[in-house]
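Lab notebook, bench 4. We co-purified these components, and the gel suggests they stay together. Before we commit to crystallization screens, I want a quick structural picture of the whole thing.
Request: model the full complex, all chains together.
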Amino acid sequence: MRFLHTADWHIGKKLNDFDLLEDQQAVFEQLVTVAKQQQVDAIVIAGDLYDRALPSEAAVATLDHMLVTLNRKLNYPLLVISGNHDSAVRLRTGRSWFSTTKMYVNTQLAEAFTPVELGDTQFFLLPYFEPFAVRDYFQDATITNVAQAIRPIVAKMKAQFKPDMRHILVSHFFAAGSDHSASETKVNVGGLDAVPIDDLAAFDYVALGHLHNHNALHAEPKIQYSGALLKYAVAEAKQEKGVYIVDTDTMARTFIPLTPQHDLIELKASYAELTDPDFYRQQDRDAYIGVDLTDTQVIPNVMAQLRKIYPRIISLRRENGVTAVKPLKQRQRDLDPLSLLKNFYAEMMQTDLTADQLKWAKAGLGEAESGQKQ
Amino acid sequence: MRFLHTADWHIGKKLNDFDLLEDQQAVFEQLVTVAKQQQVDAIVIAGDLYDRALPSEAAVATLDHMLVTLNRKLNYPLLVISGNHDSAVRLRTGRSWFSTTKMYVNTQLAEAFTPVELGDTQFFLLPYFEPFAVRDYFQDATITNVAQAIRPIVAKMKAQFKPDMRHILVSHFFAAGSDHSASETKVNVGGLDAVPIDDLAAFDYVALGHLHNHNALHAEPKIQYSGALLKYAVAEAKQEKGVYIVDTDTMARTFIPLTPQHDLIELKASYAELTDPDFYRQQDRDAYIGVDLTDTQVIPNVMAQLRKIYPRIISLRRENGVTAVKPLKQRQRDLDPLSLLKNFYAEMMQTDLTADQLKWAKAGLGEAESGQKQ
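Here is the predicted assembly.
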């Protein structure tokens, strides 16, 4: 059989207040096209379907539409687990009905030991878990981290293995040895919070979610992150996003890239370059952009100015820091308001007030002063 | 056929911070027993399954368990609509799967015009609606209230009527002429925000939710509120709660009461009576209680005192108001702290400080004073 492996959809995620639902819907339609073209028999979604435990109504409606499309309209069996971003309780609501049409949604550890059998393959759907849940489940007080937790889990799964079938683990955790995307938290790289990949050797393939980089385990022949559906952080700007197609006859895996409606890029330049038409006409100005500004001086209202040219700036970083504004000198405290304003304007704008501006400033300050005296 | 008519479960509702999930689960089990004893063929739930648009995880898990029990374990067809307390989007998530096992969940107006046919009966499941949604749906700008909105809705339903079948409307609105429970809001009794019962004459039975009193339309032979699952407000203390069993052969309806784990009662008495063992030993002290206190003087810490005897007090009302505490006199502002404390204590407790209390007060005030001076 052939299946599509995806994960980390993060439906409902926003990038600096930019709502991504449309982008997510658009790339999902590409995923559907890939599933059809590749004639897959099932689709694996390895956790973090939602971005938040409490998704918005719009996010709920969007994910529901996607799952209805895949399972109810196109009749793909779906193999789904919850990730650390999902609420297990909310995601599992309705699972008793979902399985009637081969949509399997596991959100509890105990469910992982009953494999779903499709064609020649046993799928073990192991949701995101905390070590204490494994300790409770196996009544083993020595389990305090995921590295210890994974061993009894795999042992119990192996007891269910049918020797003439393929054995595939679907899960959502950090596997030791991989790179680490900026979008993940609470993970100590290579430490006790990681699953050692050697402990997963029993499986023909391990379809993972959690890390957003599909190349995170590029050296591993049998363990794979699909990566996220879209680039969800500036740190992911250089990563290609897509899905894996896995063939259980040969265990060959093929990465199929997906093209987002709007890319996510990083631009490192000075303010003068960024606002120069010769520069910006060569840029993908439709993209979500993380700007890395090389200037050191203060630039007033810089985000609003740059967004006139690049409407989807999601972050602004200062490569070289900002030259500190000089602290207010004691002497300045004694200046009259108009002199203070003139000094401040000159410092910020590197030019003096014009004659008109000076007139307006005087008039404004005069009003304020007479208002105080009334 | 025979069906059970219930509504207004309000799963997740709290009464003054008392979590009702256990009470709701307990009365639900009685509902299941009634369904079995009465050998019903289907169960109608006429809206407000949840208490809030954004229910807690615990509420989500509880309702899911109830629906799984009725539909997946006991195989009852379920006819469900959203009420004004439900989020239509959240409640409908999964409906595409639910209908595979005859659980019909309608939350959108457009869905109301495709009847569900069970046995000899066509069920029209009309979710709670706002007039503007009906105006949009029928492209009729003259529709501005529910009284106008119901007419094209019923006309369109009648066009679907099969003459040899029963026609039952399931909905969630305020029908003109009924009493009005304190738990409902935004309803002008008998006004434009009500559906005139004459406009519902086409149906053999109208199974309503919204009002919590099952007797709200006691004079109507064919239109019925089931009432809520439990008493959800002090104003409902005298109402019996239960479900209707409707037989579509005879259109007979029978009210079957349910007995809550904890009743909800109102107690009107003085503080002296309420704290008198001869009185309180005769009361249902396990009940949720709305206390209507007849005293007029200030009683210090009255709620905490009464809850020692009646642990589930949900409200405290003053039948006769409270004698106003005298405003602080100018003279008192000049009193020393110890005199102020003595006066305050005497006024609140109607007795003077004991010698010990006076000693502690002096010591405490002395410490505070010396602290200030350091």
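Chain A has three domains: 1-255, 262-316, 335-370. Worth comparing against the SEC data before the next meeting. Chain A touches chain B at residues 54, 57, 60-61, 64, 68, 71-72, 87, 89-90, 92-94, 96-98, 100-101, 103 (CB under 8 Å).
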